[in-house]
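From the pipeline queue, job 12 of 40. The input is one protein chain; the requested action is below.

Action: predict structure.
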Amino acid sequence: MEGADLVRVDADVAYMTGANLKGANLTDAQFWEVVMKDVNLEGADLREAFVSKTDLRGANMWKADLRGADMAHAVLSDLDLRDTDLRGVDLTHANMRGVDLRDADLRGVELPIFLESADLRGANMEGMSLIGARLWHANLEGANLKFANLTSAYLSAANLQGADLQGARLTSHLDGADLSNANLSNANLSNANLWRALIHNTNLSGADLRNANTSGVDFSGNHPGVLSFSDIIPLLANLTNIDLTNIDQTSSTQTDTPPRLSITSYPIRFNGTDVTFADLRGADLSGAGLANINFTGADFRNAVLCGADLTGAALNNADLTGATIHQNQSRAQELIKLGAMPACR
């Protein structure tokens, strides 16, 4: 049936396993509860088709036109939907575990809540509502998620490398997620769980991290100056309910369950990061592990540095006027010459 004209065909409760419908015209077709395993639908026209509760496991739908199709409750697990036009498709409650949506256009799509292990590399999901979506281990590398709503989404161990999340709402579960090279500028990460997330060379300029759990997060950049770290420290320093006290960058003691509110039990690795000319005025960095960081020209005025480890940190032209330190902490005399006061108890 390759290339067949099947406009408005009605195939309710039928078995079409292994059928060859490559390039077929299936606009407005009715496939209610049809078994279509391993069907070849490459390049087929399924616009406005009704494919609800249909079993499409193993089907080839590469470059199929599915605009406006109703695929609610369909079984699409492990399906190849690369480069597919899915605009306006209803995928609510569809089973899409392991589906390959690389480079697919998903704008305006009603997606299911379960997208575990889905391959969404390069997918266009700009402005989408993904509230509560289960995206555990999903591959979102290079995906366009600008202004997407990921409130309460589960992105644990998801790969978001190079994804564009500019302006996205990410009050989500991002524990263990890989956000390397991602664009999170102006993203809303308030109350997000970032426990042990990888944030290498990530653009966090203007991001809202209020009340975020950043326990165990590795903010260190692979290439100095690329990571928007000068934005991160002021954000953390000025947040209510964020406490950097007693952070130990060398500690390796971890537990399997992250704390609910405290970020002080796990290491935040700032080691080797370049934060030249960072604005750290009034920041509370008590006990923080800040060794080997390039703080050249940084503004530490009135900052609290009680017990902070600044071993090997570059402080050329740094301003520590009014900053408070312990009289006997490492480099105390040098810090006093830069304007710090030994006022910590």
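Job complete. Helices lie at 229-238, 332-337.
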